[in-house]
Write a structure and sequence with these properties.
The complex is a heterodimer of chains A (479) and B (242). Chain A has a five-stranded mixed sheet. A four-stranded antiparallel sheet of chain A has the order 6-7-8-9, with no helix packed on it. A four-stranded antiparallel sheet of chain A has the order 10-11-12-13, with no helix packed on it. Chain A has 479 residues and is an all-beta fold. The two termini of chain A are 43 Å apart. Chain A folds into two domains: 280 residues, Tachylectin-2, Chain A (5 Propeller); 147 residues, Trefoil (Trefoil (Acidic Fibroblast Growth Factor, subunit A)), CATH 2.80.10.50. Chain B has a single domain, classed as Jelly Rolls. Chain B is built from three helices and 14 strands. In chain B, a hairpin with a 2-residue loop joins strand 8 and strand 9. Chain B starts with a helix and ends with a strand. The chains are: A mainly beta (479), B mainly beta (242).
Chain lengths: 479, 242
């Protein structure tokens, strides 16, 4: 990792934790799909170079890609990385003479002695006056082992060609197929028997006013036709929205899918302008959800106070303390009021905290009654680093320092003070079904990754993650 | 709601002591006896033990238990069953040898003025219907404390298993005299409701005790051991004697 330069430091300080944007120096345009190489994440952008991250959360410059040009993509095939990029990038008013090239490298780490790109080879091109712009490469290695490349812009068609996964060259005799119009920055992904074509609509490269947005169509056949959710072909301009502007960020473009585990997926792209970072174009990583067979951008957990609800039964995580009854007058079901009913105050922390033990308190799961022992405040701990899911959080009872902690016995408890210890730091991923996975940064005495589970309806614990089990899933409710 | 209606039917004040009194609903006239009402038999729920040993059922539920006649423990509502209340009241000694002796079927203990008997039963259901254990033997059904004991023989060391209990209402469970599980609050009996931490059951004999407390309403419990992956532990031998 490069040390901070004096010039980059103020920008890094500006890049504070927030939902939907990475920190450090996440400045990039047209990012490639994330690649993981020897313990680090990489993404490459337009104009050469790219970003590196040790944890997926904090990014810095330092990735190297020769050739310049526009909008590369990268994919791991076997023990090598194939990079595709465009030598040109004329845009709407420029030339449409373009070429897509591919090249290999054994590693993406520029410090490695093995870091050496092969000579790039042309795999697709467009003439100056043709209904295609041969830029914006996207690669898919399909489950059947076939390698596909999509490319093109608004100027004409999005085209599909097949490459040889051994050489990265165009398959002999392969002819381009038109699969979409009216979009750019395309990429194919595959899931559950469907090929999905993701492309970017809207206005590129207009900063805070960019309307760039990512859409999708799908097909059972890699060759198409790619149809959207209302039956419209992407050759007719169709496409279902995946992500558009949100949370003071505009211009979502250049989709990439990262599968971390079954049910744990991320989408990488750029925001053309992050309003909180001076309108710079930045790398974004969001949870990727799947709803009714369609991909959509998820919502990373934001700081706040929540009920933490078990997907297993719908009960909520709470301190194992005495339930303190609210002493309000009980109303008869059929009584006739002579005055309007007056509101009842919610129970406050000060009403009950003296009844709680001072030291460690076990946690359990129980009926949610919006009581102080059930209200958890999630606060980012940026100094603890992060992951692709975002920063680590501390999880404390609202209004206190009492923190949720993993134990050596692979159980959970609450401790009276948050100390910043790794067993008190929590990674929170939104899963593909919209629920959340809650995972301690480290469990003392355990090397295997463990997550917060519902061992029983009313018993939390730590265990191996299983996407097929509701025991491993949680919801954050603001009830 | 069930407890509320029960309280009304029993003519008990349905309000708790700390609440502001409000007007009672008018007392309803009792309904006439239902024609063709089912005749309940204890054998539909519990049958006397006739074999030396038993095993957990196909789902791992332990059905063989020594049950003590209900101890009179007046509670007009189950909302008092906080952790503190339960630790205080489950921690009391009600009869001699409560946490040390393995009772024999037919033996008697004294609890205050009550003379109570131990009974060895196999449950016909996955759960043990304590309410029917009491009602069909014309014993007290509400405001009661039940004790249940069984003996488990483990053929091997069982590591990282959990004791899984559902009970109506609150209960506490001990293995070999060590507190293993507390189910607090006004509870309904739910399969796999509350789990112990991971425990090791060493090869050999272990005594499992439970105390189940209830005010008004149904009383029952279900108990089994689960492995880490959630599969039930079935290769146990259950007996009611040393």
């Amino acid at each position: 990792m490069k040390p901070f330069s004096i010039l980059s430091l103020p920008l890094a300080l500006l890049a504070a934790p927030q939902a939907g944007a990475q920190v450090g120096e996440p400045f990039i345009h047209d990012p490639s799909t994330l690649a993981f190489c020897e313990g680090k994440y990489y993404t490459f952008g337009t104009g050469g170079g790219g970003l590196i991250s040790a944890d997926g959360w904090t990014w810095h410059r330092g990735a190297e890609r020769p050739g310049g040009g526009a909008a590369p993509d990268v994919i791991r095939i076997g023990d090598r990385y194939l990079v595709a990029y465009s030598a040109t990038g004329g845009g709407l008013g420029g030339t449409h003479r373009g070429q897509v090239l591919t090249m290999w490298n054994k590693t993406l780490d520029p410090q490695s002695p093995d870091f050496k790109f092969t000579e790039p080879i042309v795999v697709a091109e467009s003439a100056n006056d043709e209904d295609c712009d041969a830029i914006d490469a996207g690669l898919l290695l399909a489950p059947d082992g076939r390698l596909w490349l999509t490319y093109g812009t608004y100027f004409g068609f999005i085209r599909l060609v097949e490459l040889d996964p051994q050489t990265g060259a165009r398959k002999a005799g392969n002819e381009p197929i038109n699969i979409a119009i009216d979009c750019e920055a395309t990429v194919l992904i595959y899931r559950d028997g469907w090929y999905y074509l993701l492309g970017t609509h809207g206005t590129c490269c207009d900063g805070t006013n960019s309307t760039y947005n990512i859409v999708v169509g799908r097909s059972r056949n890699v060759l198409g036709p790619y149809i959207d959710n209302v039956g419209r072909s992407m050759l007719e301009g169709g496409g279902k929205m995946v992500v558009a502007a949100r949370h003071r960020k505009t211009g979502a473009g250049h989709f990439g899918r990262t599968v971390e585990a079954e049910g744990v997926e991320k989408m990488s792209f750029h925001w053309e302008a992050d309003f909180d970072l001076g309108g710079r174009s930045v790398l974004a990583i969001l949870p990727l959800r799947w709803r009714n067979g369609w991909p959509e951008a998820g919502e990373p957990l934001r700081e706040g106070t929540y009920e933490i609800e078990s997907e297993r039964r719908g009960y909520s995580l709470e301190l194992a303390v005495d339930f303190v009854r609210i002493q309000a007058a009980r109303q008869m079901f059929g009584q006739r009021d002579t005055v309007p009913p007056a509101p009842i105050a919610s129970q406050r922390l000060s009403d009950v905290v003296a009844t709680w033990p001072a030291g460690r308190i076990p946690v359990r799961i129980g009926d949610y009654m919006f009581r102080p022992h059930q209200r958890w405040t999630l606060t980012a701990v940026p100094e603890a680093g992060g992951t692709l899911a975002g920063p680590y959080f501390k999880i404390t009872i609202e209004g206190t320092h009492r923190a949720l902690a993993a134990t050596e016995e692979a159980e959970v408890e609450s401790v009276p003070e948050f100390t910043g210890a790794p067993e008190q730091l929590w990674r929170i991923d939104q899963l593909t079904d919209g629920t959340y996975r809650i995972m301690p940064k480290r469990v003392p005495g355990h090397d295997e990754p463990l997550v917060l589970i519902s061992a029983g309806d009313c018993t939390p614990s730590l265990g191996a993650f299983d996407m097929q089990s509701d025991n491993c899933k949680w919801n954050f409710r603001d009830y | 709601m069930k407890a509320f209606l029960l309280s009304c039917l029993l003519g008990l004040p349905f309000l708790l002591e700390a609440q502001t009194p409000v007007q009672r609903p008018p007392r309803r006239q009792p309904l006439p006896e239902m024609v063709g009402a089912p005749v309940l038999k204890l054998s539909d729920y519990l049958v006397p033990v006739t074999t030396e040993t038993a095993t957990p059922d196909a789902d791992g539920f332990i059905r063989r238990w020594l049950l003590l006649d209900p101890i009179d423990k007046p509670n007009r509502s189950n909302t008092v069953f906080t952790d503190s209340y339960l630790r205080e009241h489950f921690g009391q000694t009600y009869f001699k040898g409560q946490m040390t002796d393995l009772p024999k079927a037919g033996s008697r203990v004294s609890v205050g003025k009550q003379k109570l008997q131990w009974h060895a039963y196999d449950s016909q259901l996955f759960n043990v219907k304590l309410f029917r254990f009491a009602s069909l033997r014309e014993k007290q059904v509400y405001g009661v404390l039940f004790w249940a004991v069984t003996v488990i023989d483990c053929p091997d060391d069982l590591t990282d298993v959990r004791l899984s209990v559902g009970s109506n209402s609150a209960s506490m469970w001990w293995i070999d005299g060590n507190e293993t599980l507390l189910l607090s609050g006004d509870r309904r009996m739910v399969k796999d409701d509350v789990m112990s931490r991971r425990i090791t059951l060493t090869k050999g004999r272990h005594v499992l005790r439970g105390a189940i407390i209830n005010g008004p309403g149904m009383s029952d419990f279900c108990v089994r051991f689960l492995q880490e992956d959630g599969t039930p532990v079935r290769h146990l031998s259950i007996r009611l004697s040393e």
